[in-house]
Amino acid sequence: MTTLSTSPDLAGLQGDYVLDADHTRIGFVARHAMVTKVRGAFTAFEGRAAIAGDDLSGSRVALTIQAASIDTRNAQRDEHLRSNDFLAMDQFPTITFVSTEVRRSGPTTVAITGDLTIKDVTRSVTVPFEFGGAATDPDGDFRIGFEGSVVINRKDFGITWNAALETGGVLVGDKIVLELDVAAVRTA
């Protein structure tokens, strides 16, 4: 039996959760050559959350991403992104996010503030999330969904490589949109 709820009552969501990697996307969008966008995602990650009732004040979230799992559907570009010019994945194999505050920001929205660490540089980031719903799947697992995005400046994390274009401008934009489509399963 599957039950579905998009109720904003977050109190019913209390518990510990693990990310369902098969149904979660951790993606990004970057400006390329000043005229288009490149979209990509990380394919290897794990995360946990503890939801502590309707006010969410005792809630916490943690995410670890394997930098080597970056995928923009272009092998040459992905290798460059893994290099010291960008993620320096040999020296910094993981990207992490650990919440410092979780709060309800509206009837169906949550703001999660935390420490985002890329290349051993940590900055505070607040990600607004929209509650997508809750359901008990056919296997009896209780799952929840949230969608969120935030814009960061890659230079704030020591990712400064670029190339000038003959027509003016640069090859890679500074602003990166992080996109999180999250599915999580409550643990027993």
Automatic annotation (TrEMBL):
Gene3D superfamilies reported for this sequence: Lipid/polyisoprenoid-binding, YceI-like
Domain Lipid/polyisoprenoid-binding YceI-like: 16-185
InterPro entries according to UniProt: Lipid/polyisoprenoid-bd_YceI, TTHA0802/YceI-like_sf
Domain of life: Bacteria
Family the UniProt entry places it in: Belongs to the UPF0312 family.
Protein name (record): Polyisoprenoid-binding protein
Classification of source organism: Bacteria, Bacillati, Actinomycetota, Actinomycetes, Propionibacteriales
